[in-house]
Amino acid sequence: MNKDIATPLRTQEILKKYGFSFKKSLGQNFLIDPNILRNIVSHAELTKESAAIEIGPGIGALTEHLARSAGKVISFEIDQRLLTVLADTLSPYDNVKIIHSDILKADVSNILAEECENYNDIMVVANLPYYVTTPILLKLLMDKLPIRGMVVMMQKEVADRISAVPGTKAYGSLSIAVQYYMQAEVVMTVPKTVFMPQPNVDSAVLRLLRREKPPVEVINEAFFFEVTRSSFAQRRKTILNNLQSQLENGKAKKEQILSALAEVNIDPTRRGETLSIVEFGRLADALLPHFQK
User: Fold this and answer.
1) Rounded distance, CA 51 to CA 234, Å?
2) Which residues of 92-104 are buried (b: 16+ CB within 10 A; e: fewer)?
3) What is the pLDDT of residues 180-210, one digit of tens each?
4) DSSP-derived pairing of the beta strands 30-31 and 195-196
């Protein structure tokens, strides 16, 4: 067994060897606790028949644990300075491919088709850069990738929002956007002390497993998401007021909105946070004929 990268001493040695300095703009916080890394990987339930997709490998702390468990690891790194470091730290593993690319600009579907054609089980496992967590997650979901799910570390507050249930403060359009595709569960919380440098916030690991089908069938997914976003635009406003102010020509279509709400038995004075995904789905379908372009 190779000596773990993720110990404070080894991390310091690697940083010193390459004269590496952290870039705040890239949200770089490296994990320095092998036990936490093992725990993260265990939640992904990988085998040598699995491929793992990683985003932001840093110096390879999580990558090496993935390489030990999965058949293949594809890792996206935006910071060119880390490519040489990773070539060194991951040299013991022949099943890792580092792709120098911004995940938000990468054609991930195409890369998976090329690199993972022999793998039916694909999981995203990553310590996500906190400043772009939501855009990354939404891109991976909207790209409809052939993945079983994700085990991803992020700011605890964001993990709580994604896994929130109706009627709670954390529940919002992000909860719905993710839970439409995935079952979401916070599987562990991670203290600041196991990072270098320490972030200002607590972290959590979120496990997302793909649903066989969404909890509600909708006629138009794009419009469904538009309705959910609109309903949370101002949390203190009623669903009627939000839809009127946010949907195109909503102010002129108050009667149509009221009619759609009545059709699906939703009280216009309710707030968005009280509606379930199923209720939002029915509402979007009832509103669609009035807002189709």
Assistant:
1) 41
2) eeebbebbeeebe
3) 999 999 999 999 999 988 888 899 999 999 9
4) antiparallel
Q: Which two tokens stand for residue 198?
A: 């320490």
> What is the pTM (predicted TM-score) of this model?
0.93
Which token pair is 133? 């967590």
pLDDT tens digits for range 179-188: 999 999 999 9
Residue the block writes with tokens 């028949």 = 49
Give me the DSSP letters along the chain: -PPPS-SHHHHHHHHHHHT----GGGT--EE--HHHHHHHHHHHT--TTEEEEEE--TTTHHHHHHHHHSSEEEEEE--THHHHHHHHHTTT-SSEEEEES-TTTS-HHHHHHHH-TT-SEEEEEEE--GGGHHHHHHHHHHTT-S-SEEEEEEEHHHHHHHT--TTSTT-SHHHHHHHTTEEEEEEEEE-GGGEESPPSS-EEEEEEEE-SS-SS--S-HHHHHHHHHHHTSSTTS-HHHHHHHHSTTTGGGHHHHHHHHHHTT--TTS-GGG--HHHHHHHHHHHHHHH--
Query: What are the structure tokens assigned to 149, written together?
Result: 């799910």
The bridge status of strand 50-55 relative to strand 121-127 is parallel
Residue 185 and residue 201 in contact, taking contact as beta carbons nearer than 8 Å: no
pLDDT value for 3: 77
How far, in Å, CA of 12 to CA of 215, rounded?
47
Other CB atoms within 10 Å distance of the CB of residue 178: 21
pLDDT at 27 > cutoff 70: no
CA torsion angle 140 144 146 151 (round to 10): 30
| Residue 200 structure tokens | 């200002």
Q: Report which residue type is found at 160.
A: D
Q: Quickly count: other Cβ atoms within 10 Å of residue 1's Cβ.
A: 5
Q: Contact, 95 vs 73, CB < 8 A?
A: yes
